[in-house]
Amino acid sequence: MIEITNYGNSLSSDAWIREASYKLNKNLKVGIINWWWLDKNQENIETISSFVDSQDICFFVSEEIYFKYSDVNINELFSVLNNKNVYYIMMSEDYALLTPPFMSKCYYIPWFFKSRLYIDKNLKIDVDFRTKKYDFNFLPGSKKSNRTLLYKLLKDNNHIYSSYYGHPTFKYTSNTELESPEQHEALINQDVTTEKLDTMVFLAKEGKNYTLSHIIPTNIYNNTHFDIVCETYIRDQHQFLTEKTAKPIATGRLFYWYSSPGMVSYLEKYGFSFSTYPGSHYDQYSDHVIRLDALVESIEQVAGNTERIKQLYKETKDERIHNKNVYENCTNNFFDDLYKWIRQVVENA
Questions:
Q1: What confidence tens digit (pLDDT) does each residue in 305-346 have?
Q2: How many CA atoms lie within 13 A of 75 on its CB side?
Q3: Which range (23-32, 60-69, 221-230) has the least confidence?
Q4: Phi/psi at 288 (nearest 5 deg)?
């Protein structure tokens, strides 16, 4: 009988391990270290180490970035865990760690593979050019300094549909004409003067609940050509990609991005391709200011230039279709692939 014990509460990772281990005929104590769900008393290397020693095998699960507000030195923690019977499930990658998890014991997967998006049947998947009201949309969401800077640089461009509900000032000067009433109400009524914008509000769609952040903005997409994405977490040598990046990929859209340098090479490992996307030329710039400046310059070269937009549709069509197909395959197989890996680990323990 397999006995599963959680160190830190997480319904999702507990369900993964239980589902993958179901009906395995083994007597085994399996521990789960839920890195993002540890309380202050649990965030202690000695305590974590003791928990690991009490189990036959452990899974260290990090559903977000490696670094969080914690007194634990992540390099020291991995140094300890690498020498124990611990396997890792990671949804971000960091290439600057002094002591990274052992690759042979680690299952890496982009965060956005695990959370399904809601795509309305009225969304028009435009792989070819058709006339639209706006050239770009920029929907920053919660307030962050890099998003505020980018918003200030772009907000007066009338070829860009932009809304910034997470900013206490700009939320009231945002474009709203293309917003769905329910999404607009869920966002505009939040007090963001002291609290971060909550995009995890649930809305019912076709009998299921989806968080607001995972709902494709149908009317905005139908009336804009390209997305401008400013990712949640930007750090040298660290890749953590959210639904912001997933939305245009899932719908076959071209997008321009400001994220950690090296997004292209990170996603290429999972089968994606971005050689024809304009963002590929600045993606490797390590200097954040230079990379941001190149992004803005690229956008300004396109905004208002209908012939260039038509050209981009043609140049990127094959890769956009390819990336959409890769996304569908990776998300559809997310649980099967993860469960297969977990079962192999448990069976061999």
A1: 999 999 999 999 999 999 999 999 999 999 999 999 999 999
A2: 6
A3: 60-69
A4: -65, -35
Q: What pLDDT does residue 66 have?
A: 84
Measured CA distances, 182 to 157, 177, 186 (Å): 26, 13, 6
Q: Residue 296 CA to chain centroid, in angstroms?
A: 22
Give yes or no for a contact between 150 and 293, defined as CB atoms under 8 angstroms apart.
no
Q: Which residues, other chains included, contact 31 with Cβ-Cβ below 8 Å and sequence gap of 6+?
A: 4, 5, 6, 7, 51, 52, 54, 55, 57, 58, 59
CA distance 293 to 153: 10
SS (H, E, C) 228-272: EEECCCCECCEECCCHHHHHHHHCCCCEEEECCCCHHHHHHCCCC
251, 257, 261, 263 alpha-carbon torsion, rounded to 10°: 0
Can you tell me which residue has the tokens 């962050």?
A: 144
Cβ contact 276:319 at 8 Å: yes
Counting Cα atoms < 13 Å in the Cβ hemisphere of 309 gives: 23
Helices (H), the chain: 11-21, 45-53, 74-81, 145-154, 181-188, 218-222, 243-250, 263-268, 288-302, 306-332, 334-347
223 contacts 134 by C-beta, under 8 angstroms? yes
* Separation between Cα atoms, residue 110 and residue 318, nearest integer Å: 23
Spatial contact of 81 and 52, defined as CB atoms under 8 Å apart: yes
pLDDT of 106 higher than 80: yes
- Who contacts 258 (Cβ-Cβ below 8 Å, separation ≥6)? 146, 150, 228, 229, 230, 231, 234, 291, 292, 295
In the chain, what are the domain boundaries? 2-108, 134-331
- CATH assignment of 134-331, among 3.40.50, 1.10.1760, 3.30.70, 3.40.30: 3.40.50
Residue 299 tokens read as: 């956008």
Model's pTM, two decimal places? 0.95
- The DSSP call for residue 22 is T
Contact 327, 253 (CB under 8 A): no
Length of the chain: 349
Helix, strand or coil for residue 85? Answer: coil
